[in-house]
Amino acid sequence: MLFRFLKYLQPTSYFMLKRENGKSIFPRIEAVDRASALKVPEDSRYTSALAREYDRSWRLILKGYTIESDSYEHIEKLPVVDEYRFLRKNFNSAWIWYVLCLRIFSFKNPFREISAFAKARSVKRVNEHKEPIEYPGYSEFLGPLIKQRPLVSIIIPTLNRYPYLKDVLEDLEKQDYTNFEVIVVDQSEPFKKEFYDQFDLDILLIHQEEKALWLARNTAIIKSRGEYILMFDDDSRVDPAWISQHLKTLDFFDAAISSGVSISTQGAKVPDSYAHFCLSQQLDTGNAMIKKSVFKSIGLYDRQFEKQRMGDGEFGLRAYLADFKNISNPFAKRLHLKVGSGGLRQMGSWDGFRPKKWLDPRPIPSVVYLFRKYHGNSASRWALLKTVPGSIIPYRYKSSSKMMFIGGIISIILLPIVFLQVMKSWKLASKKLAEGELIEKL
């Protein structure tokens, strides 16, 4: 990563890792086109010329720069004061204090740290997403892909959510792009085959007795006929242009993945980055169109995540490392209802960091497995230190910084229990790592 202090705040971000070709995601400024470079003028507050250059590259990615350019292969060390300046520009002040404390408790020179922290205090936070890179040609773009009318395979695993699935399928009946099949993998009890007779859709219905989400998705991908796979959830609502916007984005950006944005009815606030196109740091299997060739190249979903969380995050990271372009698509929205019954809430762990019982592992072991597999033990520990305290607070308060702070205080009080939970999760993740990935080839 361009700035070392990000290891404390974003230790398991996709962008912390170089891709398999040895390159980072961050473009060299001299390789960027003039119009984009003008979007990020040099910040003279940095003491180092290299820090000013790295800062511009970072801001370009935040603003939505998506062009494949010559990138940084070797990242040099920057002055500590510039690291604090960078954090000041990009994160809430509470997180800057968090990093300062970590640095001091890690036996860094306290005088140097406090001096650098103080020198950066005048730097104001900047929201780069307010002035993103614009793609004016997108609205009028009529590329060849939609004209070719490729078959799209929409994949929906479902479990005991027939009332919500009815709305999902009715939304699909209203799509302005009509060359698609719907593959439903129904794990419900009781299974209601007759439910599907009411819809005017090309439905391939698969009755799966085992309650297994990633098995369901893998089975559907294997059975699919389309060259474009559209992952969907059974508790979501979408607009009539949903499919066509995904296809249009893949074509316009010459991308392999279009990650539609998900607007949740509860939980964390909607990120500012959802308002514009950018390279995505995630993959949400509730709203993502993926070229089938991606699965043929890197395999299906890892079944080590069965009945647990972040199988889609692992697949997205695998695709990133293999250099498949993944675009965050603001025009392919879905409303995620996150209903209180069925789905992962019934078959296993719905939230990755909040176990159902106090003595259950925290986080869910698959989360730690993902962190350790790709980022290593050190980065995983930083990630757990940052995420576990806030997970004490119920999910519905996730968007409240005040409640998250309270969660941190409570976690200190409950430290023995929380430590036991984390150690359980770490041990179970070690077992998964020893067993190895369970990724079937397509």
Automatic annotation (TrEMBL):
Gene Ontology molecular function: hexosyltransferase activity
User: Could you list the residue ranges that cross the membrane?
Assistant: 403-423
What keywords are annotated for this sequence in UniProt? Membrane, Transferase, Transmembrane, Transmembrane helix
| UniProt xrefs under InterPro entries | Glyco_trans_2-like, Nucleotide-diphossugar_trans
Its name, as the record gives it, is Glycosyl transferase family 2
Q: Does the keyword Protease apply?
A: no
Q: Which organism is it from?
A: Nonlabens spongiae
Could you confirm whether the keyword Aminoacyl-tRNA synthetase appears in this record? no
